[in-house]
Amino acid sequence: MIEFHPVTKHIGAEVTGVDLRKPLSPEEVTTLRQGWLKHLVLFFRDQHIDDEQHLQFALNFGTLNHPAFKKDSTSPIHVLDQTSPKGEGGDEWHSDNTFEPTPPMGSLLRCVQLPSVGGDTCWANTYLAYEALSPSLQRLCDELSAVHDITMSMKKAISKGHPFDLAEIQAKWPPIERPVVRVHAETGRKALFVNRASTTRLVGLSDRENEALLPFLIDHIRSPEFQLRLRWRPGTLAFWDNRPTQHYAVADYTERRRMHRVTINAFPEHADA
């Protein structure tokens, strides 16, 4: 029987009672989805699955997103294989692909090889970040939009040796405006939706107002009370809802860290309000 074991009060649960090597029944898929919507991040230990099993598990929850920056690959598996962090944006708090017209719904990240120490991942509950604001600030944020620009994180990656073509990236994904508060299409709850990796400014505010409010909101999301920190081990798979969370890959290792990620598209009918 599938069971969820919360690891903090507000975010994250370890899942037991399921073998990801085997096909899931419709009832098991429903149970996992309900637990995912409740806990935001699920992790499964000792699941030594291969890429095909990883893909089949992900397909229970939606269609798969092709990695945005992997031109030469036809696989939806995104391999993150590094001996040191190279600044792709993972070591900044962020939600995935907020620069796309429809950001992905969620991701499933599997640990294949790990440094002897380090390489953890943290997540933050952005529902809770919104709900912890004063009612007056909530009302202000409800009315605001913000600009998201992928070039913020790409410039950092290029400075660390990644061969990205900034002009091509800017042409494909120009800056886009999004609500500062997004409404989750399945739960109806509100979540803060700004991040350090790609949010450049709040629309309609002066420079001084931006300098005061945007850093406050970004830093507020990082409060420890909203967070989960996962210590990986080979065979661990994490499955998170990208809509009410942000995550951060801790850049504290110099040995090989190999992770395989599959990302799930948002359903058209689940576009956020």
From TrEMBL:
It comes from Nonomuraea longispora. Keywords: Dioxygenase, Iron, Metal-binding, Oxidoreductase. This is Taurine dioxygenase. GO terms for cellular component: cytoplasm. Residues 4-263 form the TauD/TfdA-like domain. It holds the Pfam family TauD. Signal peptide: none annotated. Belongs to the TfdA dioxygenase family. GO terms for molecular function: 2-oxoglutarate-dependent dioxygenase activity; metal ion binding.
